[in-house]
């Protein structure tokens, strides 16, 4: 059976999996994202992980989810929001050269949205939106069972909508974006603590931590409500 490889490129870790064509995962591995996460260093790390997953040389292709917009051809990582120096990087071409596998790119949240629509929580729905919360805030839009990416292939950056035009600057060029308040860095900036530590304090009954999570929930709700008004998804 021919397998394929999926790569999730994140700001702190690179996750990889080997899959049968029915979506069954038969191997998964993770490595740290090089710091600083320059294109050259990250490309070498991805190629190493892909070759490790394709040890028997029987895989057919690799799909890579990147944290930012991709050109309409699925070949160029236009911007990687939380990585260093990523502008119009020919990532697919370079991974093909280093692994011998056909490569294609998409926004990481779009990949997650397609996965949920195919095999996950959205599989019985034609219209849905997905939000990813982590190093950044990402999003995917599924309309009538199709991924919506707009005319240039970069639509659906739901984490970049504006919550506060006078808020902190975002790597996207926006100010006060959804991502600046509801990502890991947003939690750290608003509370001064890592989300894990803040969660533990809240579970222990710390009133300040609970109030900070309530503030986070309000901001998260504001962002989600804006998206629901626009898309009225089923899920």
Describe the structure.
The chain is of the alpha+beta class and 235 residues long. The chain has two domains: 3-111, Nucleotidyltransferase, domain 5 (2-Layer Sandwich); 124-231, ATPase, nucleotide binding domain (Nucleotidyltransferase, domain 5). Helices cover 35% and strands 25% of the residues. It has seven helices and ten strands. It has helices at residues 39-53, 91-99, 108-119, 178-182, 184-191, 195-203, 207-231; strands at 3-9, 13-20, 25-32, 59-66, 77-79, 87-89, 102-107, 128-133, 137-143, 146-147. Strands 3-2-1-4-7 form a five-stranded mixed β-sheet. Strands 8-9-10 form a three-stranded antiparallel β-sheet. The chain has a two-stranded antiparallel ribbon with strand order 5-6. A hairpin with a 3-residue loop joins β8 and β9. α6 crosses α7 (207-231). It is globular and about 55 Å long. The model has no long low-confidence stretch (mean pLDDT 94).
Please report the total strand number as a whole number.
10
Compute the number of structural domains: 2
Number of helices: 7
CATH topology of the largest domain: Nucleotidyltransferase, domain 5
Sketch the major β-sheet. Answer: 5 strands, mixed
The overall pLDDT, averaged over residues, is: 94
Side by side, the strands of the main sheet go 3-2-1-4-7
- Judged by helices, strands and strand pairing, the structural class is alpha+beta
Principal-axes geometry comes out as globular
CATH superfamily of the largest domain: ATPase, nucleotide binding domain
Strand content: 15-25%
| CATH secondary-structure class of the largest domain | Alpha Beta
Return residue spans where pLDDT drops below 50 for at least 5 consecutive residues. none
- Provide the CATH architecture of the largest domain: 2-Layer Sandwich
Radius of gyration: 18 Å
């Amino acid at each position: 059976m021919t397998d394929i490889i999926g790569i999730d490129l994140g700001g702190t870790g690179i996750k990889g999996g080997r899959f049968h064509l029915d979506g069954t995962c038969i191997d998964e591995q993770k490595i740290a994202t090089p710091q600083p996460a320059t294109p050259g260093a990250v490309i070498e790390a991805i190629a190493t992980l892909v070759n490790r997953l394709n040890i028997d040389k029987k895989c057919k292709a690799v799909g890579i989810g990147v944290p930012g917009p991709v050109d309409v051809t699925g070949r160029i990582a236009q911007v990687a929001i939380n990585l260093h120096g990523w502008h119009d990087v020919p990532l697919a071409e370079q991974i093909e050269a280093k692994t011998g596998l056909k490569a294609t790119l998409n926004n990481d949240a779009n990949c997650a949205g397609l996965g949920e629509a195919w095999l996950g929580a959205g599989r019985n729905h034609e219209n849905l939106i997905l939000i990813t919360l982590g190093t950044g805030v990402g999003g995917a839009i599924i309309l009538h069972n199709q991924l919506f990416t707009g005319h240039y292939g970069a639509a659906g950056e739901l984490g970049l909508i504006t919550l506060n035009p006078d808020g902190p600057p975002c790597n996207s060029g926006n100010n006060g974006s959804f991502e600046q308040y509801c990502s890991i860095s947003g939690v750290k900036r608003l509370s001064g603590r890592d989300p894990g530590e803040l969660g533990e304090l809240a579970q222990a009954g710390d009133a300040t931590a609970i109030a900070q999570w309530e503030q986070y929930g309000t901001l998260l709700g504001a962002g989600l409500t804006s998206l629901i008004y626009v898309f009225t998804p089923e899920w």
